[in-house]
Amino acid sequence: MAHLVMIGGFLGAGKTTLMLRVARRLAKQGRRVALVTNDQAPDMVDTRLARLAKFPVAEVSGGCICCRFDEFAGEVGGLARDLNPDVVLVEPVGSCTDLAATVLRPLLRFLPELSVAPHTVVIDPAVWLQMKQRPSMPPETAYIFEKQFAEADILLLNKSDVTPQPSMEIVRAEVDAQVPRAQILPVSARTGAGIGAWCDRVIASQGSGRSIDVDYATYGKGEQWMGWLNATLDLQTGSSPRWNHTLSEFMQALCRALSEAGESPAHLKCLLSSGSLIATGNATLGAPSPDLRILQAGRSSRKAELVINLRIGLPPRCLRPAVAAAIGSLRNTEGTFLTERSFAPAQPVPRHHMA
Ligand SMILES: Nc1nc2c(ncn2[C@@H]2O[C@H](COP(=O)(O)OP(=O)(O)OP(=O)(O)O)[C@@H](O)[C@H]2O)c(=O)[nH]1
Ligand SMILES: [Mg+2]
Q1: Of 12, 73, 114, 193, which is least surrounded by CB within 10 A?
Q2: What is the pLDDT of residues 54-99, one digit of tens each?
Q3: Is 94 in the pocket of ligand 1 (CB under 6 A)?
Q4: Ligand 1 close to Cβ of residue 15 (< 6 A)
Q5: Which residues are within 8 A (CB) of 242 and not within 5 positions of it... i.e. 6 or more apart?
Q6: What is the domain extent for residue 110?
Q7: pTM exceeds 0.90 for this model
Protein backbone atom coordinates (compact mmCIF):
# COMPACT_ATOMS: atom_id res chain seq x y z
CA MET A 1 0.00 0.00 0.00
CA ALA A 2 1.41 3.42 -0.95
CA HIS A 3 1.81 5.99 1.81
CA LEU A 4 1.17 9.57 0.66
CA VAL A 5 3.14 12.40 2.27
CA MET A 6 1.99 15.91 1.40
CA ILE A 7 4.40 18.81 1.99
CA GLY A 8 2.60 22.16 2.02
CA GLY A 9 3.72 25.68 2.86
CA PHE A 10 4.10 29.11 1.34
CA LEU A 11 6.01 29.95 -1.86
CA GLY A 12 9.76 29.56 -1.37
CA ALA A 13 9.52 27.91 2.06
CA GLY A 14 11.69 24.98 0.91
CA LYS A 15 9.13 22.29 -0.07
CA THR A 16 10.94 21.06 -3.19
CA THR A 17 14.32 21.07 -1.46
CA LEU A 18 12.80 18.99 1.35
CA MET A 19 10.92 16.66 -1.00
CA LEU A 20 14.06 15.82 -2.98
CA ARG A 21 16.17 15.34 0.15
CA VAL A 22 13.58 13.00 1.65
CA ALA A 23 13.15 11.14 -1.63
CA ARG A 24 16.92 10.44 -1.68
CA ARG A 25 16.87 9.34 1.96
CA LEU A 26 13.96 6.95 1.40
CA ALA A 27 15.50 5.58 -1.80
CA LYS A 28 18.74 4.88 0.10
CA GLN A 29 16.69 2.93 2.65
CA GLY A 30 15.47 0.77 -0.23
CA ARG A 31 12.00 2.27 -0.53
CA ARG A 32 10.36 2.94 -3.89
CA VAL A 33 9.49 6.64 -4.13
CA ALA A 34 7.36 8.61 -6.60
CA LEU A 35 6.72 12.36 -6.64
CA VAL A 36 3.84 14.62 -7.64
CA THR A 37 4.45 18.27 -8.50
CA ASN A 38 1.77 20.89 -8.98
CA ASP A 39 1.50 24.38 -10.41
CA GLN A 40 -0.92 26.82 -12.01
CA ALA A 41 0.82 26.36 -15.39
CA PRO A 42 3.24 23.99 -17.17
CA ASP A 43 7.01 24.57 -17.63
CA MET A 44 7.74 23.94 -14.00
CA VAL A 45 11.21 24.18 -12.50
CA ASP A 46 10.19 21.76 -9.70
CA THR A 47 9.23 18.97 -12.13
CA ARG A 48 12.53 19.34 -13.96
CA LEU A 49 14.45 19.18 -10.68
CA ALA A 50 12.59 15.99 -9.75
CA ARG A 51 13.40 14.45 -13.15
CA LEU A 52 17.05 15.49 -12.88
CA ALA A 53 17.15 13.72 -9.52
CA LYS A 54 15.89 10.63 -11.45
CA PHE A 55 12.67 10.06 -9.51
CA PRO A 56 9.44 9.12 -11.27
CA VAL A 57 7.30 12.24 -11.22
CA ALA A 58 3.74 13.07 -12.21
CA GLU A 59 2.94 16.73 -12.86
CA VAL A 60 -0.46 18.32 -12.32
CA SER A 61 -0.41 21.76 -13.92
CA GLY A 62 -3.01 24.32 -14.92
CA GLY A 63 -4.48 24.63 -11.42
CA CYS A 64 -4.03 23.49 -7.84
CA ILE A 65 -4.66 19.86 -6.87
CA CYS A 66 -7.85 20.77 -5.00
CA CYS A 67 -9.40 22.28 -8.15
CA ARG A 68 -7.90 19.51 -10.33
CA PHE A 69 -8.62 16.76 -7.85
CA ASP A 70 -9.76 14.19 -10.42
CA GLU A 71 -6.58 14.59 -12.46
CA PHE A 72 -4.49 14.49 -9.27
CA ALA A 73 -6.22 11.34 -7.96
CA GLY A 74 -5.78 9.80 -11.44
CA GLU A 75 -2.03 10.54 -11.36
CA VAL A 76 -1.61 9.16 -7.83
CA GLY A 77 -3.66 6.06 -8.72
CA GLY A 78 -1.59 5.64 -11.92
CA LEU A 79 1.71 5.89 -10.04
CA ALA A 80 0.46 3.39 -7.44
CA ARG A 81 -0.66 0.93 -10.13
CA ASP A 82 2.32 1.23 -12.46
CA LEU A 83 5.22 1.62 -10.01
CA ASN A 84 3.92 0.17 -6.75
CA PRO A 85 5.72 2.88 -4.74
CA ASP A 86 6.08 2.63 -0.97
CA VAL A 87 5.88 6.41 -0.66
CA VAL A 88 4.33 9.14 -2.83
CA LEU A 89 5.60 12.63 -1.98
CA VAL A 90 3.30 15.47 -3.05
CA GLU A 91 4.08 19.20 -3.28
CA PRO A 92 1.01 21.41 -3.76
CA VAL A 93 1.17 24.98 -5.10
CA GLY A 94 2.65 27.33 -2.47
CA SER A 95 -0.37 29.65 -2.54
CA CYS A 96 -2.83 26.83 -1.69
CA THR A 97 -4.61 26.09 1.56
CA ASP A 98 -7.54 24.01 2.89
CA LEU A 99 -5.74 20.94 1.58
CA ALA A 100 -6.83 18.63 4.39
CA ALA A 101 -10.51 19.11 3.48
CA THR A 102 -10.14 19.36 -0.29
CA VAL A 103 -7.35 16.86 -1.05
CA LEU A 104 -6.31 14.57 1.83
CA ARG A 105 -9.74 13.46 3.05
CA PRO A 106 -11.21 13.10 -0.47
CA LEU A 107 -8.15 10.99 -1.39
CA LEU A 108 -8.84 8.59 1.47
CA ARG A 109 -12.41 8.25 0.20
CA PHE A 110 -11.56 7.83 -3.50
CA LEU A 111 -8.32 5.83 -3.17
CA PRO A 112 -8.90 3.74 -0.03
CA GLU A 113 -5.87 1.61 -0.89
CA LEU A 114 -3.66 4.62 0.08
CA SER A 115 -2.58 5.64 3.56
CA VAL A 116 -1.97 9.32 4.26
CA ALA A 117 0.78 10.76 6.49
CA PRO A 118 0.28 13.60 8.99
CA HIS A 119 -0.05 16.83 7.04
CA THR A 120 3.27 18.68 7.08
CA VAL A 121 3.66 22.40 6.42
CA VAL A 122 7.04 24.08 5.91
CA ILE A 123 7.66 27.62 7.19
CA ASP A 124 10.51 29.99 6.34
CA PRO A 125 11.02 31.75 9.72
CA ALA A 126 12.30 34.91 7.98
CA VAL A 127 9.02 35.16 6.07
CA TRP A 128 7.02 34.51 9.24
CA LEU A 129 8.80 37.41 10.98
CA GLN A 130 8.32 39.66 7.95
CA MET A 131 4.61 38.88 7.88
CA LYS A 132 4.26 39.78 11.55
CA GLN A 133 6.66 42.73 11.84
CA ARG A 134 6.57 44.56 8.51
CA PRO A 135 3.94 42.96 6.31
CA SER A 136 4.47 43.61 2.62
CA MET A 137 1.49 41.58 1.47
CA PRO A 138 -2.18 42.47 1.55
CA PRO A 139 -4.11 40.89 4.45
CA GLU A 140 -5.84 38.44 2.08
CA THR A 141 -2.47 36.90 1.09
CA ALA A 142 -1.32 36.83 4.72
CA TYR A 143 -4.64 35.01 5.38
CA ILE A 144 -3.52 32.14 3.11
CA PHE A 145 -0.16 31.92 4.92
CA GLU A 146 -1.97 31.70 8.29
CA LYS A 147 -4.50 29.12 7.10
CA GLN A 148 -1.69 26.94 5.72
CA PHE A 149 -0.08 26.38 9.09
CA ALA A 150 -3.42 26.28 10.98
CA GLU A 151 -4.31 23.01 9.23
CA ALA A 152 -0.95 21.30 9.80
CA ASP A 153 -0.31 18.25 11.97
CA ILE A 154 3.43 18.95 11.80
CA LEU A 155 5.11 22.32 11.24
CA LEU A 156 8.70 22.43 10.06
CA LEU A 157 10.60 25.62 10.86
CA ASN A 158 12.96 25.32 7.91
CA LYS A 159 16.24 27.08 7.06
CA SER A 160 17.62 26.53 10.58
CA ASP A 161 21.11 26.71 9.02
CA VAL A 162 20.71 30.42 8.21
CA THR A 163 18.12 31.59 10.76
CA PRO A 164 19.64 33.13 13.90
CA GLN A 165 18.75 31.11 17.03
CA PRO A 166 16.83 34.00 18.71
CA SER A 167 14.63 34.37 15.59
CA MET A 168 14.07 30.62 15.56
CA GLU A 169 12.93 30.76 19.19
CA ILE A 170 10.59 33.74 18.63
CA VAL A 171 8.93 32.02 15.67
CA ARG A 172 8.68 28.72 17.53
CA ALA A 173 6.94 30.37 20.50
CA GLU A 174 4.53 32.28 18.24
CA VAL A 175 3.71 29.21 16.14
CA ASP A 176 3.18 27.16 19.28
CA ALA A 177 0.77 29.77 20.65
CA GLN A 178 -1.19 29.87 17.38
CA VAL A 179 -1.27 26.14 16.60
CA PRO A 180 -0.88 24.54 20.02
CA ARG A 181 -1.68 20.97 18.95
CA ALA A 182 0.77 20.77 16.06
CA GLN A 183 4.21 19.24 16.45
CA ILE A 184 6.88 21.87 15.68
CA LEU A 185 10.31 20.79 14.45
CA PRO A 186 13.26 23.00 13.49
CA VAL A 187 14.93 21.61 10.35
CA SER A 188 17.16 22.47 7.45
CA ALA A 189 16.12 20.97 4.15
CA ARG A 190 19.44 22.19 2.79
CA THR A 191 21.79 20.53 5.30
CA GLY A 192 19.46 17.72 6.38
CA ALA A 193 19.46 18.77 10.06
CA GLY A 194 16.34 17.43 11.80
CA ILE A 195 14.98 15.80 8.64
CA GLY A 196 15.58 12.19 9.73
CA ALA A 197 13.31 12.48 12.79
CA TRP A 198 10.52 14.12 10.76
CA CYS A 199 10.82 11.58 7.95
CA ASP A 200 10.71 8.58 10.31
CA ARG A 201 7.62 10.06 11.99
CA VAL A 202 5.62 10.73 8.81
CA ILE A 203 6.51 7.38 7.29
CA ALA A 204 5.37 5.53 10.39
CA SER A 205 2.13 7.39 11.13
CA GLN A 206 -1.13 8.55 9.61
CA GLY A 207 -3.16 11.75 9.75
CA SER A 208 -5.13 14.03 7.52
CA GLY A 209 -4.60 17.55 8.81
CA ARG A 210 -6.91 19.71 10.89
CA SER A 211 -10.31 21.11 9.99
CA ILE A 212 -10.22 24.85 9.44
CA ASP A 213 -12.75 27.42 8.26
CA VAL A 214 -11.69 29.10 5.06
CA ASP A 215 -13.42 32.09 3.50
CA TYR A 216 -12.99 31.39 -0.21
CA ALA A 217 -13.61 35.02 -1.25
CA THR A 218 -10.65 36.13 0.90
CA TYR A 219 -8.55 33.14 -0.22
CA GLY A 220 -9.24 33.93 -3.90
CA LYS A 221 -8.36 37.59 -3.43
CA GLY A 222 -5.13 36.61 -1.67
CA GLU A 223 -4.09 34.39 -4.58
CA GLN A 224 -5.12 36.90 -7.23
CA TRP A 225 -2.85 39.55 -5.71
CA MET A 226 0.01 37.58 -7.23
CA GLY A 227 1.16 37.68 -10.82
CA TRP A 228 2.45 34.35 -12.10
CA LEU A 229 4.87 33.85 -14.99
CA ASN A 230 6.15 30.53 -16.33
CA ALA A 231 8.42 30.87 -19.35
CA THR A 232 11.08 28.98 -21.28
CA LEU A 233 13.72 30.85 -23.26
CA ASP A 234 16.38 29.90 -25.71
CA LEU A 235 19.62 31.80 -24.94
CA GLN A 236 22.50 32.24 -27.34
CA THR A 237 25.82 33.85 -26.57
CA GLY A 238 28.29 35.29 -29.07
CA SER A 239 31.30 34.83 -26.76
CA SER A 240 32.70 31.97 -24.67
CA PRO A 241 29.86 30.84 -22.46
CA ARG A 242 29.93 31.68 -18.76
CA TRP A 243 26.35 30.69 -18.08
CA ASN A 244 26.49 30.84 -14.29
CA HIS A 245 27.54 34.52 -14.59
CA THR A 246 24.81 35.11 -17.14
CA LEU A 247 22.21 33.59 -14.81
CA SER A 248 23.45 35.74 -11.94
CA GLU A 249 23.36 38.90 -14.10
CA PHE A 250 19.86 38.05 -15.33
CA MET A 251 18.46 37.43 -11.85
CA GLN A 252 20.02 40.60 -10.46
CA ALA A 253 18.69 42.69 -13.34
CA LEU A 254 15.21 41.19 -12.98
CA CYS A 255 15.10 41.57 -9.17
CA ARG A 256 16.24 45.20 -9.54
CA ALA A 257 13.52 45.96 -12.08
CA LEU A 258 10.85 44.25 -9.96
CA SER A 259 11.97 46.13 -6.89
CA GLU A 260 11.78 49.42 -8.85
CA ALA A 261 8.21 48.41 -9.72
CA GLY A 262 7.60 48.13 -5.97
CA GLU A 263 7.85 44.41 -5.10
CA SER A 264 10.25 41.59 -4.26
CA PRO A 265 9.41 38.16 -5.64
CA ALA A 266 7.47 35.80 -3.39
CA HIS A 267 9.56 33.29 -5.34
CA LEU A 268 11.62 33.60 -8.51
CA LYS A 269 13.10 30.26 -9.55
CA CYS A 270 15.25 29.68 -12.61
CA LEU A 271 16.83 26.61 -14.13
CA LEU A 272 19.50 27.00 -16.81
CA SER A 273 20.86 24.07 -18.83
CA SER A 274 23.56 24.08 -21.49
CA GLY A 275 25.41 20.93 -22.60
CA SER A 276 26.01 19.09 -19.35
CA LEU A 277 25.94 22.24 -17.17
CA ILE A 278 22.86 22.73 -15.00
CA ALA A 279 22.48 25.78 -12.72
CA THR A 280 19.62 27.05 -10.57
CA GLY A 281 18.81 30.47 -9.17
CA ASN A 282 16.22 31.34 -6.50
CA ALA A 283 15.10 34.60 -4.92
CA THR A 284 12.52 34.38 -2.13
CA LEU A 285 10.85 36.82 0.26
CA GLY A 286 13.10 35.53 3.05
CA ALA A 287 16.32 35.87 0.99
CA PRO A 288 15.71 38.36 -1.81
CA SER A 289 19.28 38.35 -3.14
CA PRO A 290 19.57 35.49 -5.62
CA ASP A 291 20.84 32.13 -4.40
CA LEU A 292 22.76 30.54 -7.29
CA ARG A 293 23.81 26.92 -7.40
CA ILE A 294 25.54 24.66 -9.90
CA LEU A 295 23.54 21.44 -9.84
CA GLN A 296 25.77 19.74 -12.34
CA ALA A 297 29.13 21.06 -13.51
CA GLY A 298 30.12 20.24 -17.07
CA ARG A 299 30.90 21.47 -20.56
CA SER A 300 28.46 23.97 -21.94
CA SER A 301 27.79 25.27 -25.43
CA ARG A 302 26.84 28.71 -26.80
CA LYS A 303 23.17 27.78 -26.51
CA ALA A 304 21.27 27.40 -23.25
CA GLU A 305 17.69 26.82 -22.14
CA LEU A 306 16.36 28.96 -19.32
CA VAL A 307 13.14 28.05 -17.44
CA ILE A 308 11.71 30.90 -15.35
CA ASN A 309 8.94 30.56 -12.72
CA LEU A 310 8.08 33.91 -11.11
CA ARG A 311 5.42 34.61 -8.46
CA ILE A 312 5.13 38.22 -7.26
CA GLY A 313 2.62 40.79 -6.06
CA LEU A 314 2.51 42.67 -9.37
CA PRO A 315 -0.03 42.62 -12.21
CA PRO A 316 0.73 39.78 -14.66
CA ARG A 317 1.02 42.22 -17.61
CA CYS A 318 4.20 43.69 -16.01
CA LEU A 319 6.03 40.38 -15.84
CA ARG A 320 6.94 39.52 -19.43
CA PRO A 321 8.26 43.04 -20.17
CA ALA A 322 10.37 42.88 -16.98
CA VAL A 323 11.84 39.50 -18.00
CA ALA A 324 12.42 40.69 -21.58
CA ALA A 325 14.20 43.84 -20.33
CA ALA A 326 16.43 41.80 -17.98
CA ILE A 327 17.34 39.47 -20.88
CA GLY A 328 17.94 42.52 -23.11
CA SER A 329 20.39 43.92 -20.55
CA LEU A 330 22.70 40.85 -20.76
CA ARG A 331 26.05 41.35 -22.43
CA ASN A 332 26.66 39.26 -25.58
CA THR A 333 23.51 37.20 -25.02
CA GLU A 334 20.29 37.06 -27.00
CA GLY A 335 17.13 35.44 -25.70
CA THR A 336 14.03 34.14 -27.47
CA PHE A 337 10.84 33.16 -25.65
CA LEU A 338 9.88 29.57 -26.53
CA THR A 339 6.90 29.40 -24.19
CA GLU A 340 5.37 32.04 -21.95
CA ARG A 341 2.35 32.32 -19.73
CA SER A 342 1.61 35.17 -17.37
CA PHE A 343 -1.63 35.39 -15.42
CA ALA A 344 -3.17 35.75 -11.99
CA PRO A 345 -4.35 32.47 -10.42
CA ALA A 346 -8.06 31.77 -10.91
CA GLN A 347 -10.50 31.76 -7.98
CA PRO A 348 -10.04 28.36 -6.22
CA VAL A 349 -13.10 26.14 -6.63
CA PRO A 350 -12.30 22.78 -5.02
CA ARG A 351 -13.92 19.70 -6.51
CA HIS A 352 -14.61 18.24 -3.04
CA HIS A 353 -14.80 19.58 0.49
CA MET A 354 -14.80 17.18 3.45
CA ALA A 355 -14.46 19.11 6.68
N1 LIG B 1 19.55 28.17 3.70
C2 LIG B 1 18.56 27.36 3.37
N3 LIG B 1 17.94 27.54 2.20
C4 LIG B 1 16.95 26.69 1.89
C5 LIG B 1 16.54 25.63 2.73
N6 LIG B 1 15.52 24.97 2.14
C7 LIG B 1 15.31 25.58 0.96
N8 LIG B 1 16.17 26.61 0.81
C9 LIG B 1 16.28 27.54 -0.32
O10 LIG B 1 15.05 28.26 -0.43
C11 LIG B 1 14.76 28.53 -1.80
C12 LIG B 1 13.38 27.99 -2.15
O13 LIG B 1 13.39 26.59 -1.99
P14 LIG B 1 12.33 25.64 -2.71
O15 LIG B 1 12.56 24.26 -2.19
O16 LIG B 1 12.36 25.84 -4.17
O17 LIG B 1 10.97 26.24 -2.12
P18 LIG B 1 9.47 25.80 -2.45
O19 LIG B 1 8.74 25.85 -1.16
O20 LIG B 1 9.46 24.51 -3.16
O21 LIG B 1 8.99 26.98 -3.39
P22 LIG B 1 7.68 26.99 -4.38
O23 LIG B 1 7.70 25.73 -5.19
O24 LIG B 1 7.83 28.20 -5.22
O25 LIG B 1 6.47 27.12 -3.52
C26 LIG B 1 15.90 27.87 -2.60
O27 LIG B 1 16.90 28.84 -2.83
C28 LIG B 1 16.42 26.81 -1.64
O29 LIG B 1 17.80 26.48 -1.86
C30 LIG B 1 17.23 25.47 3.98
O31 LIG B 1 16.96 24.60 4.79
N32 LIG B 1 18.23 26.36 4.23
MG1 LIG C 1 8.66 24.02 -5.01
Answers
A1: 193
A2: 999 999 999 999 999 999 999 999 999 999 999 999 999 999 999 9
A3: yes
A4: yes
A5: none
A6: 3-222
A7: yes
